[in-house]
Design a protein that fits this description.
Belongs to the class-I pyridoxal-phosphate-dependent aminotransferase family. This protein has 480 residues and is an alpha/beta fold. Helices cover 34% and strands 19% of the residues. The protein has 14 helices and 21 strands. Strands 8-14-13-12-11-9-10 form a 7-stranded mixed beta sheet, sandwiched between helices. A 4-stranded antiparallel beta sheet has the order 15-16-21-20.
Length: 480
């Protein structure tokens, strides 16, 4: 008869009762969980098993017992998995969601997800696909219809030409990026990543047995990569440069002139490829404009362009992205996908065709969303710009503000402790202001905090009031 014991731990929560199943088939677990804070004590009881699987990291030791001997199962994990850090954005979003579901009025500004509904014409295309029985497997690379539509979009909007066999549709741009890394990187290769970076880039590089090489940028340079720094760090081991424009988490947009300087450096290194993450290309604020790296002279052969439908078309849950590039590389990604997930959802692909049919850059529906994002951005820039000790760079795209709050570090708060870094400041703001934000350390810059303004203006206004109020006790640490 097997007996199992489980130890459960999670950032910011503490379990007060061990979860030990009773003997018998109808055993249930119960307990209480409290949020650790300086002045609040939130208690949640009878958490569902599904929520436990989402919110906790569980280690389970199973012992098989018999009358004569005892065997312990080897629960060790691979070194590859142990080397990977969990996503802070996912952890904080889950934590804030748990608090909100328990009745705590948390304002959630951590997730990178538009707050708009998927445009009706896209949703209807998905519904019609179901009604018409379009619910079977598609070709591994994606339907011919969708890949042809992507080719047309890339030529008309980005100035780059591809054929359908140079396009691979996947279950989100995240999968597209990871498969590209697996396809082109060998053990010991270096992946060049400007910081601040999207949290998954370094971990994907490690999963591909490559070494992430982080190149810092400065808020005074709008978090844009210095070509001279890039040139000084390249070597024979350099295999892939990752560029994200508009950027998550900074909202920075690479001007075409700067991209051309980077391209001239890339051209000197035969092994160096470029992964251009353009998922936020349509969420951009004039006068800034988007330029695709593959459109630059001699860069088409070296570039894997990644894009998708989640951000601009508010289709995060539809899980659809794609990579475009030279056939040799895309075929390798296609081979990996064939043994990994196979083709993406047939329903989502029909919806994506409708999305690409909405007009240039998504037409009026997308421009309406971008207009709202810009209004929110302008409000936050004004609000935080009025605060002492706060530094920021005005984002030109995406829907994030990456704010430097490092002047508040070192402050001591009664009942909470010392604000030491971006992580402790975010915990303090979640505790005192009940606003969920993401610490900059997750993106490679501990001086900042990422604020997502993919929320209504009313919500953002309430969040600013709470943040400003909670920072008042910390003002003594801010240089005058």
């Amino acid at each position: 008869m097997a007996a199992a014991s489980a130890s459960i731990s999670r950032l910011g929560f503490q379990h007060h009762q061990p979860l030990v199943p009773n003997s018998g088939s109808n055993s249930q677990t119960s307990g209480s969980v409290s949020f650790l804070s300086g002045s609040h004590n939130f208690s949640f009881k009878s958490l569902e098993a599904t929520r436990e699987s989402q919110l906790y990291r569980i280690s389970v030791v199973v012992k098989a017992e018999s009358r004569s001997d005892e065997m312990q199962v080897d629960i060790s994990l691979s070194p590859r998995v142990n080397a990977v850090k969990p996503s802070k954005t996912v952890a904080i979003t889950d934590q804030a969601t748990a608090l909100a579901q328990a009745g705590v009025p948390v304002i959630r500004l951590a997730a990178g997800e538009p707050d708009f509904d998927t445009p009706a014409v896209i949703a209807e295309a998905g519904i019609n696909a179901i009604r018409e029985g379009y619910t079977r497997y598609t070709p591994n690379a994606g339907t011919q219809e969708l890949r042809a539509a992507i080719c047309q979009k890339l030529k008309e909007e980005n100035g780059i030409s591809y054929t359908p066999d140079q396009i691979l549709v996947s279950n989100g741009a995240k999968q597209s990026i990871y498969q590209a890394l697996l396809a082109v990187c060998s053990p010991g290769d270096e992946v060049i990543i400007p910081a601040p970076f999207w949290v998954s880039y370094p971990e994907m590089a490690r999963l591909a047995d490559a070494t992430p090489v982080i190149l810092p940028t400065s808020i005074s340079d709008n978090f844009l990569l210095d070509p001279k720094l890039l040139e000084s760090k390249l070597s024979e081991k350099s295999r892939l440069l990752i560029l994200c424009s508009p950027s998550n988490p900074t909202g920075s947009v690479y001007p075409k002139k700067l991209l051309e300087e980077i391209a001239q450096i890339v051209a000197k290194h035969p092994r160096l490829l470029v992964l251009s993450d353009e998922i936020y290309e349509h969420i951009i604020y004039a006068p800034a404009t988007h330029a695709s790296f593959a459109s630059l002279p001699a860069m088409w052969e070296r570039t894997l362009t990644v894009n998708g439908f989640s951000k601009a078309f508010a289709m995060t849950g539809w899980r659809l992205g794609y990579v475009a590039g030279p056939k040799h590389f895309v075929a390798a990604c296609n081979k990996i996908q064939s043994q990994f997930t196979s083709g993406a959802s047939s329903i989502s692909q029909k919806a994506a065709v409708a999305a690409l049919g909405m007009g240039y850059a998504g037409g009026e529906a997308v421009s309406t969303m971008v207009k709202a994002f810009r209004e929110r951005r302008d409000f936050l820039i004004k609000s935080f710009g009025e605060m002492e000790g706060v530094r920021l760079s005005e984002p030109q795209g995406a829907f994030y503000l990456f704010v430097d709050f490092s002047s508040y570090y070192g402050a001591e708060v009664e009942g909470f402790g010392q604000i030491e870094d971006s992580d402790s400041l975010c915990r303090y703001l979640l505790d005192q202001a009940q606003v969920a934000l993401v610490p900059g350390v997750a993106f490679g810059d501990d001086s900042c905090i990422r604020i997502s303004y993919a929320a209504s203006l009313t919500t953002l206004q309430a969040a600013v009031v709470r943040i400003k109020k909670s920072l008042l006790p910390l003002n003594s640490a801010v240089p005058v």
